[in-house]
């Protein structure tokens, strides 16, 4: 069991992928059953495992390729945090995507890569060694590309191209770093931190930088963020996946892994690379928000807000104080919930009302109350209004910053809060308080679209309200930090 | 002593061949140059094999094989040249047709 | 032993049969020959896996009088790869080069040439004698040239002739080296040469042989003959030429440098060879970027991909005692040979399908073909993953092993080559891919039989699977591996 | 899983009840009549306060561990707030027009109310912060409810400052909490003393609270928002909501800090400046708004001076100011001369109380406030009565000018009586609560010197009123500093800069280089060159090997 479970988790999305590719375009029922079935089973497994791991069980599966090339799947608390997020959101996104695409073209291709992408994310979460992390990291890149290019029109193909131009050099840097490190320390497992004594500090700093560049591309750290806003040319479910579940998260997750499982917090501080990383994250936070302010396309604005928000996670990791790390980890989940809500809603506005730009939102609150309510919750959460999810993360990050003796971070959080408000509140204002345009149409007769948004919005509220309960993401993040990375 | 003569002649042939192979444009000349080099090498080979006590049978075997190989190569080459001349009207490579 | 012999002679007989038999029986005979040879190579592989390297002294005569054949892990592995490619090519050619489609000349000529090539390749994989290697190499060259010219088009003939010109020059250089070696040591058997006492003439001999082999391997700057030749040939032939032919001369290089004359390897020469390889990676990549025809892109990518393999000289070479990384580098290089063989064959066969479908391989005409021929598009994409060296493909395994060796041996600069080369490959493969996967279809393609479409897909999938299951091949390659590869020269 | 809660659920229920009512308008059918519920929303809180705010509760799983409970001063303000909201809610239920917009208004009304009650009930900073955010941000829709240009402009200024305040407050709280390693309000407050960057933290807190409490110069939103909101909204804004900022300062700003003196200075500045500036207003609601700024200034002075009577004084001001705003509303609805006289009468009475006429609740409030603060300050407070009388007198004049409404409104009388109750309570309640709230016997009120201190400023003020009635006052629109500092025009809508979407970059030079490569390739193709290079290479390799061995 202990070895088969990780495999099962992987299979729940790999098998649907493999089968879906060869399904006929019009065999909708079978395809949807496969997708939903896989998602549900995976979620079940995850829930089961949550309890098992909470009682101290560990799961591990190992496949040696060539010497030094070992795929190691291992389930620890951190992996579980990420995997439960992606598992839950995958189910919702699948429901949403099925409703979104209806009977459009090329669905077998889409859903094939869609589940492949999730398989990659699962593998990423379960990776117990650097090299397996890299392998799934690459698989993720490859499986996402067709999703971005799915529409196959000029903008989306261009977006896909941009995506590759950023992603591949990034992975080259990552591979370089991994091999450089492992040539001195041997294969790196996340269970025991490698012995870095073999490398001089300069080399270690360089390796760290390479690592951060490698995962930073996916985490959309400024200045490596260019692909993310471009990628909003993809269909809404993909954006949701990209921004909340898979790609960007994978990057942030990678940063956490590298900081805490490869280098270790104290080494990072000793090398003096923590503060620079924190600065990069801060710059990203502010710059992303600032650019978001300038966008008048809803999805573009959301994309830039992702750029900014994901760096909270990086910031939390970089500050390397327990509270900050809890904040970062919990934001991994919280940002996912909030951003996926926003993208779901953006997709609904686009799909049901043809709204792409913010002017279109005027007065939509009355027209599409549920969507608009969910959107508002997500937006307010992003701003960090209590008692929503975003507030919890921000609060812990702030405390952590003080704990780490980096009060300037408070200024960053302050600025980001104000900027977030500046680019989200006008949207809410338009939604609820401005008169509707005469030709405004739009309805919410697609429950498959609205329901997931409602669920995630409710979750955004719930994780904030019940933050202190042990089963909340915050509780789990606290568990991780106290177990694994406690000082 | 005569061995050295053979060896030197072989070397000379090779030299001549190399010059022809590089300097000449017409493909037939190049093929002949190739055969020249081949013969030179075989001559040298034979000389090398004939040293020491008694005769070493191996070089002879090898040389015969080599000659066969060279022959078939030349045959193929000539065939191609003919085909080239038929299709393009010249027995020179496209990019060199200009220079003599 | 029987396995080895039958593995050598079966394709030869099949070739003769394909020539001799009347046209009706030709194709069945050829396919039968292919089938039997595959069986033989599997058999041989199992034998090698069970009992280690298989050595045969022909007619019971031992070297230096007799001729020895030896199937070690390396040779057998290449043999298996060759068998796979041959089967795929045969299956594709059944559709593409049927006499009524491609004309009588190709219909007649292709099968014997292919089988002859196969026999020659197998001979080279197991030969232990420099002169036998020469003969095998010549046989390969001649069949390859014939395959290039087989279509009879003017461009093809010119390309073939240029190929022949370069190739013959190469063989002469090699032959000269062989002669000098024999003159100095009175033997050409690799194992005996390894035990020889170094003579002053060896340097020149080695230099001549190496240079000759470099031309045949189409290493920069002697690659120029390859792209026109490979793109002029019909697709299945191109697959053979690109996937297999250069590997033979490359193998001989490895045999000479790692087995026959390891003690002559010096950092300077090694890095000279590796630098040429690095240049090849860059040069081939850039030129592939500039091509507008699919087959030319693929051909230039061959130039680039072969460049990686030359990193083996400084990485697995280098004086010094037992070096743990050497095995990694050596195996990595061979993985690259295998991965490239499979992937490149898949690519050329895919190109063949596209040409058969729309009668052109210009990128402009290929827009949106993925819609009509999804499997082929998928195959091309998979093969690209291998060439990019992305996990979990075998290309990645090779890249990883080489880069690790580079860092471990403190020559990290060499690691830049695979890293950068991967990006370059991404750049030049992105263009055909984005063309194939574009939405608007330029031409309405002719229907392609399903069986034909699966062929490249399977090959490409194999090139990825080789990476996923690389532990067994890794073991296999260590069988009968030269000590020098284990411990460094 | 720990136990769900410990303590009595009463405070929690008090808080939840308005939130539940706030959900009612979600049902479309009920939306139209949601306003009817408003007066009932604060009732549990009112009862809770009257019962002496018994019991406290801890709910560990909620948020970051919710703790609710009151202290004497917060209990006072809790009751006042509940009372104000009840009456204002009644007024809104009677007067405001029903409809879709009303539903939205009702929801936010309840949310704001919950927040307003929450700031007095919260015992941990997270709950407090959440309540504070609710009371600031949820009040925004009430400000812009009428959608007039002025309302939208005011709303824009309001929300901007509110968000800035939130951010500042959050940062301040974080600094404190990080030092305290605990979320209890009292602990956090104590921790500021020797927290790293504690002073900055306190400064941020004061900024955050100051915005809400209308502290000069952060008050700029107040004279814009209070008049713009519907009457009921203005009543709660001026009466109850501003007190959230005040209680924040009381609860979280530690005694020993340099900021205190700044509080006093700014307070006095507001107390006198705002009152004077109020004379430049024509709209009675605007005048009242400025008087609120000045009264809050006084209260801030008390906070700065560490007076015990802050809550007590605030209680009176809340009731009175709410009553005054409602009077404006009654005036707008009044039709007969009798009604108008009645309104002016009530307003005058309450105004005098605010000014501190002896024996009124206001006088008691001032006396209680002056207890235990320095001579100079108490003198200043006494003096402030003059300006207060002046500005409120001016208010009465403007009130008289409010044009009557043509048609009769139903049950005006009933409505007025409710407002009257509120006003009267403003006069009476301080008498009732004195024993509990102030620790000197009530006879202190009758002390002649105190009577005198209360009387003469009022008389002086009345004289001044008589004076200003004569001379022509300049008339400015509300929003003093905003206009002073070149904030040329107040825009109603948010207009954001829209960035360019990235210009295309051309890569021609790279192309030219690549073409050169192609030429080079052609040169390599040339056999004589290639062949000789080949021979050369052979020899070079040989040479390499030769050299090495």
Automatic annotation (TrEMBL), chain A:
The keyword Oxidoreductase does not apply. The keyword Acyltransferase does not apply. Residues 127-417 form the NADH:quinone oxidoreductase/Mrp antiporter transmembrane domain. It is a multi-pass membrane protein. It is found in: Cell membrane; Membrane. GO terms for cellular component: plasma membrane. Its main location: membrane. The chain crosses the membrane at residues 34-57, 78-101, 113-142, 163-182, 202-228, 240-260, 272-290, 302-326, 332-349, 370-396, 408-429, 449-468. Keywords: Cell membrane, Membrane, Transmembrane, Transmembrane helix. It comes from the Bacteria. NDH-1 shuttles electrons from NADH, via FMN and iron-sulfur (Fe-S) centers, to quinones in the respiratory chain. The immediate electron acceptor for the enzyme in this species is believed to be ubiquinone. Couples the redox reaction to proton translocation (for every two electrons transferred, four hydrogen ions are translocated across the cytoplasmic membrane), and thus conserves the redox energy in a proton gradient. Belongs to the CPA3 antiporters (TC 2.A.63) subunit D family. This is Proton-conducting membrane transporter. The lineage of its organism: Bacteria, Pseudomonadati, Pseudomonadota, Alphaproteobacteria, Rhodobacterales.
From TrEMBL, chain B:
One of its GO terms (cellular component) is plasma membrane. The keyword Transmembrane helix applies. It is found in: Cell membrane. InterPro entries: CPA3_antiporter_subunitC (IPR050601), NUOK/Mnh_C1-like (IPR039428). It is a multi-pass membrane protein. The chain crosses the membrane at residues 6-25, 32-50, 62-85. Belongs to the CPA3 antiporters (TC 2.A.63) subunit C family. This is Na+/H+ antiporter subunit C. It comes from Roseinatronobacter bogoriensis subsp. barguzinensis. The lineage of its organism: Bacteria, Pseudomonadati, Pseudomonadota, Alphaproteobacteria, Rhodobacterales.
Automatic annotation (TrEMBL), chain C:
It is found in: Cell membrane; Membrane. GO terms for cellular component: plasma membrane. Residues 127-417 form the NADH:quinone oxidoreductase/Mrp antiporter transmembrane domain. Pfam families: Proton_antipo_M (PF00361). GO terms for biological process: ATP synthesis coupled electron transport. It is a multi-pass membrane protein. It comes from the Bacteria. One of its GO terms (molecular function) is NADH dehydrogenase (ubiquinone) activity. Keywords: Cell membrane, Membrane, Transmembrane, Transmembrane helix. The chain crosses the membrane at residues 73-93, 105-125, 131-151, 163-184, 204-226, 238-258, 270-290, 297-317, 337-357, 369-391, 411-430, 450-472. PANTHER family: NA(+)_H(+) ANTIPORTER SUBUNIT D1, NADH DEHYDROGENASE. NDH-1 shuttles electrons from NADH, via FMN and iron-sulfur (Fe-S) centers, to quinones in the respiratory chain. The immediate electron acceptor for the enzyme in this species is believed to be ubiquinone. Couples the redox reaction to proton translocation (for every two electrons transferred, four hydrogen ions are translocated across the cytoplasmic membrane), and thus conserves the redox energy in a proton gradient. Belongs to the CPA3 antiporters (TC 2.A.63) subunit D family. This is NADH:quinone oxidoreductase/Mrp antiporter transmembrane domain-containing protein. The lineage of its organism: Bacteria, Pseudomonadati, Pseudomonadota, Alphaproteobacteria, Rhodobacterales.
TrEMBL record, chain D:
One of its GO terms (molecular function) is oxidoreductase activity. It is a multi-pass membrane protein. Residues 122-367 form the NADH:quinone oxidoreductase/Mrp antiporter transmembrane domain. GO terms for cellular component: plasma membrane. Keywords: Cell membrane, Membrane, Oxidoreductase, Transmembrane, Transmembrane helix. It is found in: Cell membrane; Membrane. NDH-1 shuttles electrons from NADH, via FMN and iron-sulfur (Fe-S) centers, to quinones in the respiratory chain. The immediate electron acceptor for the enzyme in this species is believed to be ubiquinone. Couples the redox reaction to proton translocation (for every two electrons transferred, four hydrogen ions are translocated across the cytoplasmic membrane), and thus conserves the redox energy in a proton gradient. This is NADH:quinone oxidoreductase/Mrp antiporter transmembrane domain-containing protein.
């Amino acid at each position: 069991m202990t070895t088969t479970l990780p495999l099962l988790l992987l299979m729940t999305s790999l098998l649907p992928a493999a089968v879906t590719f060869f399904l006929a375009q019009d065999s909708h029922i079978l395809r949807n059953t496969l997708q939903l079935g896989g998602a549900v089973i995976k979620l079940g497994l995850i829930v089961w495992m949550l309890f098992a791991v909470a009682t101290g069980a560990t799961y591990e599966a190992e496949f040696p390729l060539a010497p030094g090339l070992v795929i190691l799947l291992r389930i620890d608390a951190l992996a579980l945090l990420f995997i439960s997020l992606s598992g839950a959101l995958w189910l919702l996104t699948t429901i949403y995507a099925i409703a979104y695409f209806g009977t459009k073209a090329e669905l077998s291709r889409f859903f094939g890569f869609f589940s492949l992408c999730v398989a990659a994310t699962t593998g990423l979460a379960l990776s117990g060694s650097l090299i397996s992390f890299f392998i799934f990291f690459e698989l993720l890149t490859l499986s996402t590309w067709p999703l971005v290019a799915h529409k196959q029109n000029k903008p989306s193909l261009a977006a896909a191209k941009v995506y590759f131009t950023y992603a591949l050099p990034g992975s080259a840097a990552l591979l370089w770093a991994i091999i450089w490190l492992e040539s001195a320390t041997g294969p790196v497992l996340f269970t025991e931190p490698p012995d870095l004594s073999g490398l001089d500090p300069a080399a270690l700093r360089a390796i760290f930088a390479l690592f951060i560049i490698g995962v930073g591309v996916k985490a959309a750290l400024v200045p490596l963020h260019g692909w993310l806003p471009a990628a909003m040319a993809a269909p809404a479910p993909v954006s949701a996946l990209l921004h909340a579940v898979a790609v960007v998260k994978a990057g942030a997750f990678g940063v956490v892994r590298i900081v805490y499982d490869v280098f270790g917090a104290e080494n990072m501080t000793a090398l003096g690379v923590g503060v620079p990383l924190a600065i990069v994250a801060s710059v990203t936070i502010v710059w992303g928000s600032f650019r978001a302010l300038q966008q008048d396309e809803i999805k573009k604005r959301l994309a830039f807000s992702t750029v900014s928000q994901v760096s909270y996670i990086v910031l939390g990791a970089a500050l390397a104080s327990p509270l900050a790390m809890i904040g970062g980890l919990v934001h991994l989940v919280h940002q996912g919930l909030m951003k996926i809500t926003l993208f779901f809603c953006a997709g609904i506005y686009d799909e049901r009302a043809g709204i792409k730009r913010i002017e279109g939102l005027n007065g939509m609150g009355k027209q599409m109350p549920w969507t608009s309510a969910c959107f508002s919750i997500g937006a307010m959460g992003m701003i960090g209004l209590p008692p929503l999810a975003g507030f919890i993360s921000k609060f812990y990050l702030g405390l952590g910053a003080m704990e780490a003796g980096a009060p300037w971070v408070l200024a960053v959080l302050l600025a980001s809060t104000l900027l977030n408000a500046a680019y989200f509140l006008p949207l809410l204002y338009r939604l609820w308080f401005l008169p509707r345009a005469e030709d405004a149409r739009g309805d919410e007769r697609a429950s498959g679209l609205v329901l997931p948004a409602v669920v995630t919005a409710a979750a955004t509220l719930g994780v904030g309200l019940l933050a202190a309960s042990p089963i909340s993401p915050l509780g789990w993040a606290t568990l991780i930090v106290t177990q694994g990375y406690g000082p | 002593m005569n061995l050295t003569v053979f060896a030197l002649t072989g070397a000379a042939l090779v030299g001549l061949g190399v010059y022809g192979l590089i300097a000449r444009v017409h493909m037939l000349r190049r093929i002949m140059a190739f055969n020249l080099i081949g013969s030179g090498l075989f001559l040298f080979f034979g000389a090398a094999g004939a040293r020491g006590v008694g005769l070493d049978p191996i070089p002879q075997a090898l040389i015969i094989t080599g000659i066969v190989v060279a022959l078939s190569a030349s045959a193929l080459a000539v065939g191609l040249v003919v085909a080239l001349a038929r299709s393009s009207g010249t027995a020179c490579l496209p990019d060199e047709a200009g220079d003599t | 032993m029987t396995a080895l012999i039958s593995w050598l002679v079966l394709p030869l007989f099949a070739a003769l049969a394909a020539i001799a038999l009347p046209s009706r029986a030709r194709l069945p005979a050829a396919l039968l020959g292919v089938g039997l040879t595959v069986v033989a190579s599997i058999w041989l592989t199992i034998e090698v896996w069970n009992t280690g390297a298989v050595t045969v002294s022909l007619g019971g005569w031992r070297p230096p009088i007799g001729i020895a054949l030896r199937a070690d892990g390396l040779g057998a592995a290449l043999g298996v790869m060759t068998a796979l490619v041959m089967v795929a090519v045969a299956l594709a050619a059944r559709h593409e080069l049927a006499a009524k489609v491609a004309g009588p000349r190709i219909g007649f000529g292709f099968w014997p040439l292919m089988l002859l090539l196969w026999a020659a390749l197998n001979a080279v994989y197991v030969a232990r004698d420099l002169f036998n290697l020469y003969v095998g190499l010549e046989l390969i060259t001649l069949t390859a040239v014939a395959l290039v010219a087989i279509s009879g088009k003017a461009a093809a003939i010119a390309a073939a002739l240029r190929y022949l010109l370069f190739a013959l020059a190469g063989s002469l250089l090699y032959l000269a080296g062989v002669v000098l070696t024999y003159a100095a040591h009175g033997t050409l058997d690799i194992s005996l040469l390894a035990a020889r006492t170094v003579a002053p003439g060896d340097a020149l001999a080695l230099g001549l042989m190496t240079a000759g082999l470099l031309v045949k391997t189409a290493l920069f700057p002697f690659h120029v003959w390859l792209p026109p030749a490979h793109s002029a040939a019909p697709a299945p032939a191109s697959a053979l030429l690109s996937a297999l032919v250069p590997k033979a001369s490359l193998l001989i290089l490895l045999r000479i440098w790692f087995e026959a004359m390891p003690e002559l390897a010096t950092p300077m020469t090694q890095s000279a060879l590796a630098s040429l390889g690095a240049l090849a990676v860059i040069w081939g990549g850039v030129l592939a970027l500039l091509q507008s025809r699919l087959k030319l892109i693929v051909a230039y990518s061959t130039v680039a991909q072969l460049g990686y393999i030359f990193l083996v000289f400084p990485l697995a070479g280098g004086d010094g005692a037992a070096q743990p990384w050497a095995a990694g580098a050596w195996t990595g290089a061979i993985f690259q040979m295998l991965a490239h063989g499979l992937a490149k064959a898949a690519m050329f066969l895919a190109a063949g399908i596209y040409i058969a479908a729309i009668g052109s391989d210009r990128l402009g005409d290929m827009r949106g073909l993925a819609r009509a021929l999804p499997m082929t598009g998928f195959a091309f994409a998979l093969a690209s993953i291998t060439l990019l060296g992305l996990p979990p493909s075998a290309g990645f395994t090779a890249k990883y092993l080489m880069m690790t060796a580079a860092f471990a041996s403190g020559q990290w600069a060499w690691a830049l080559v695979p890293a950068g080369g991967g990006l370059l490959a991404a750049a030049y493969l992105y263009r055909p891919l984005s063309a194939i996967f574009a939405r608007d279809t330029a031409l309405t393609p002719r229907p392609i039989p399903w069986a034909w479409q699966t062929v490249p897909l399977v090959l490409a999938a194999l090139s990825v699977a080789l990476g996923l299951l690389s532990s067994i091949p890794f073991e296999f390659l260590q069988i009968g591996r030269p000590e020098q590869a284990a411990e460094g020269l | 899983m720990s136990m769900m809660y410990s303590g009595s659920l009463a405070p929690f229920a008090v808080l939840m009840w308005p939130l539940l009512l706030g959900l009612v308008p979600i049902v479309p059918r009920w939306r139209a009549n949601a306003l009817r519920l408003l007066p009932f929303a604060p009732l549990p809180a009112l009862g809770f306060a009257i019962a002496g705010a018994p019991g406290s509760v801890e709910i560990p799983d909620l948020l970051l561990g919710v703790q609710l409970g009151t202290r004497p001063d917060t209990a006072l303000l809790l009751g006042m707030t509940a009372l104000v909201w009840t009456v204002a809610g009644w007024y809104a239920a009677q007067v405001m027009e029903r409809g879709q917009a009303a539903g939205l208004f009702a929801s936010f009304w309840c949310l704001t109310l919950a927040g307003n009650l929450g700031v007095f009930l919260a015992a941990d900073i997270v709950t407090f912060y959440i309540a504070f955010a609710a009371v600031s941000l949820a009040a925004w829709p009430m400000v812009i409810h009428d959608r007039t240009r002025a309302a939208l402009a005011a709303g824009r200024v309001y929300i901007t400052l509110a968000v800035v305040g939130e951010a500042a407050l959050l940062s301040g709280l974080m600094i404190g909490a990080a030092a305290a390693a605990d979320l209890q309000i009292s602990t956090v407050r104590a921790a500021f003393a020797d927290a790293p960057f504690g002073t900055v933290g306190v400064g941020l807190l004061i900024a955050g609270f100051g915005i809400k409490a209308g502290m000069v110069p952060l008050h700029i939103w107040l004279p814009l928002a209070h008049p713009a909101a519907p009457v009921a909204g203005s009543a709660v804004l001026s009466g109850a909501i501003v007190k959230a900022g005040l209680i924040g300062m009381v609860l979280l700003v530690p005694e020993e800090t340099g900021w205190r003196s700044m509080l006093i200075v700014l307070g006095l500045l507001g107390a006198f400046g705002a009152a004077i500036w109020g004379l430049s207003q024509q709209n009675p609601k605007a005048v009242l708004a400025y008087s609120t700024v000045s009264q809050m200034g006084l209260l801030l002075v008390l906070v700065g001076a560490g007076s015990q009577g802050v809550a007590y004084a605030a209680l009176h001001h809340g009731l009175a100011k709410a009553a005054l705003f409602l009077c404006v509303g009654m005036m707008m609805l009044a039709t007969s001369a009798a009604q108008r006289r009645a309104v002016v009468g009530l307003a005058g009475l309450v105004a005098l109380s605010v000014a501190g006429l002896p024996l009124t609740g206001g006088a008691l409030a001032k006396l209680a406030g002056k207890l235990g603060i320095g001579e100079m300050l108490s003198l200043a407070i006494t003096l402030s009565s003059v300006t207060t009388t002046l500005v409120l007198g001016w208010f009465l004049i403007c009130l008289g000018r409010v044009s009557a409404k043509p048609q009769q409104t139903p049950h005006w009388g009933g409505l007025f009586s409710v407002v009257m109750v509120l006003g009267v309570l403003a006069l009476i309640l301080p008498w009732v609560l004195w024993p509990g709230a102030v620790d000197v016997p009530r006879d202190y009120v009758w002390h002649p010197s105190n009577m005198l201190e209360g009387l003469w400023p009022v008389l002086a003020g009345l004289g001044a009123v008589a004076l200003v009635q004569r001379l022509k006052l300049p008339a400015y629109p509300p929003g003093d500093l905003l206009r002073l500092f070149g904030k040329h025009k107040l825009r109603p809508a948010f207009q954001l800069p829209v960035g360019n979407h990235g210009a295309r970059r051309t890569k021609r030079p790279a192309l030219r280089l690549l073409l050169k490569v192609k030429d080079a390739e052609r040169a390599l193709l040339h056999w004589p060159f290639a062949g000789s290079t080949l021979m050369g290479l052979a020899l070079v390799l040989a040479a390499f090997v030769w050299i090495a061995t």
